[in-house]
Design goal:
This protein is 26% helix and 25% strand. By secondary structure, the protein is of the alpha/beta class.
């Protein structure tokens, strides 16, 4: 007799995808083009610039964690800010090699802005990352986090977590919140399976359609 797992597996059936209307395919392509990539960067950068102005930070050292190909350096005037990245591997000039869950090589209170975009979902122990971020941020400095509330599984190399605004706020203990909330701009974007190890089956709607980002901005208490 087959075990329970084998019997349940036999009851799971994934239907084949139906043919798609070419007009709908093109609509999805245009929507995808409009809501992510450079447009997403512009949207996040605009919000980052707003909270930076609200924070009162007018210059100093900026650390982006895992910036890689999508840095926020254009938000920061080069005459007033020094912009650096922290990453696990060498990805270009101005990169500090280190792990944000434990980075003793960075001194306390040594940065005026610490930010992350599309990173916290890939951190295995985000509570340690939050403690380190607050530690290396100077009093009065700005922390900015933009990550995911609802998104398709995407290992890069590993996909661990999803967050609410309050979860991000709790991770940044020792800061006063300037802004937090959801970004639903990409909510109905058609996110198709890309990773070979993605375990999610075919979606009858075409792809993952509940794409919601989440953000938090806070200032470290003195």
């Amino acid at each position: 007799m087959p075990g329970l797992r084998e019997r349940l597996a036999r009851r799971i059936w994934t239907p084949p995808p139906p043919p798609r209307d070419p007009d709908l395919v093109e609509l999805d392509r245009l929507r995808d083009e409009w809501t992510h990539g450079p447009v997403r960067d512009e949207r996040i950068n605009e919000h980052l610039a707003l909270v930076l102005a609200k924070s009162g930070v007018t210059g100093g050292r900026v650390l982006e964690i895992g910036g890689r190909g999508h840095p926020r350096d254009r938000v920061f005037d080069a005459e007033r800010f020094e912009y650096l990245n922290l990453d696990l591997a060498e990805t270009g000039p101005g990169v500090i090699l280190g792990d944000i869950t434990h980075c003793p090589e960075i001194e306390d209170d040594s940065f005026d802005v610490v930010l992350t975009v599309d990173v916290f979902e890939h951190i295995d122990r985000p509570w340690l990352a939050g403690e380190e971020i607050v530690r290396i941020l100077r009093p009065g400095g700005l922390v900015y986090t933009s990550t995911l509330f609802s998104w398709r599984y995407h290992p890069c190399p590993i996909d661990y977590w999803r967050y609410t605004p309050e979860a991000l706020e709790s991770l940044m203990r020792g800061t006063d919140t300037l802004d937090l909330g959801f970004d639903t701009t990409e909510r109905r974007r058609d996110v198709r399976k890309k990773a070979a190890e993605d375990p999610m089956p075919y979606d009858a709607l075409g792809g993952w359609r509940e794409n919601v980002r989440v953000f938090h901005a806070g200032v470290k208490r003195g």
